[in-house]
């Protein structure tokens, strides 16, 4: 198949996403105001608590079985690699741009977490249904594509609320600590009281010898010689302390979000054969339940895409974030990460880890080229850091994604077929 034919196949899903996003943007304008500031939270709650979990359950339970999970074992590894690579590149970007502390968590989240759910649920079936699709029979392709997209979305939810949320929370707490330290410095300079210099206590400003209370808490298991001496900590002990600190920032309440619970139930239904026979299938006694959930879940993709367009309108009204940061995130998500993704998937294919399914390889590569997850904005709001700048980053990354995803999708299809 020629490169131009592949480009047309890749362009169709992007046009669908752009059209629905444009409708959401239009509905959010002040003149129409159907998705204004008052309406968006209600629709967002419906998507978060009802539509997304229903969609995830219907797609995952119907397409995932124990045999397919064994076949798709590399996808969790691949998704984890997208998060790790994005985090590492975000750290480099922060060092290069010298980003302010309150934006660092947002940069990490935007680079690490891609939109692994709804976009794949749009792109993969749309590509399969094109007449010139390189992936064979449209019916089998759509079924496999939905399975890949559903598993990708389930993994994305888990990694978002564990890995990304923990790192963003850690970074946000550092920003808060920095602000508190600056406030303490000002109070210390203006205070006329004499500090207690003869006693080893927690000072307003951390000294070289004494630890702050938070640092002491983190190092409570490591013996040290007191205020004047430095603790001798091995590399392994430091690694354990950092891991313990990182796991301490995982919020189990946030981890078990509705979509996570839905994914757990869907995995149980799909993998456990007796339950699957009762719920899934045309002859299943409880098929009405699955059909009803599927019907509700069909509203998830259009509503979520409309919300993306409505939320992007806020980015047009704000420009607080630096241009270098936005360009850096775009370069990471749409240039560096996809190139690394090609290398990783091709290497995995060479060593027999992903099999010969071209659609599966295409999906794995596509996971490296997606725009930032909209959930990053939700996490920013929860942590109350970088909220206004998030709209700007999302606006420009999604505008560029409409072009970059088309180009990369074309190139990925050419590579795997």
From TrEMBL:
Primary location group: endoplasmic reticulum
Pfam family, one: Mem_trans
Keyword terms: Auxin signaling pathway, Endoplasmic reticulum, Membrane, Transmembrane, Transmembrane helix, Transport
One Gene Ontology term, aspect cellular component: endoplasmic reticulum membrane
Membrane topology of this protein: Multi-pass membrane protein
Annotated localization: Endoplasmic reticulum membrane
TM region positions: 6-29, 73-94, 106-127, 147-168, 255-275, 295-313, 325-345, 365-383, 395-416
Example of a GO biological process term: auxin-activated signaling pathway
PANTHER family: PROTEIN PIN-LIKES 3-LIKE ISOFORM X1, PTHR31651
Functional summary from the UniProt entry: Involved in cellular auxin homeostasis by regulating auxin metabolism. Regulates intracellular auxin accumulation at the endoplasmic reticulum and thus auxin availability for nuclear auxin signaling.
Stated family: Belongs to the auxin efflux carrier (TC 2.A.69.2) family.
Protein name as annotated: Auxin efflux carrier family protein
Lineage of the species this protein comes from: Eukaryota, Viridiplantae, Streptophyta, Embryophyta, Tracheophyta
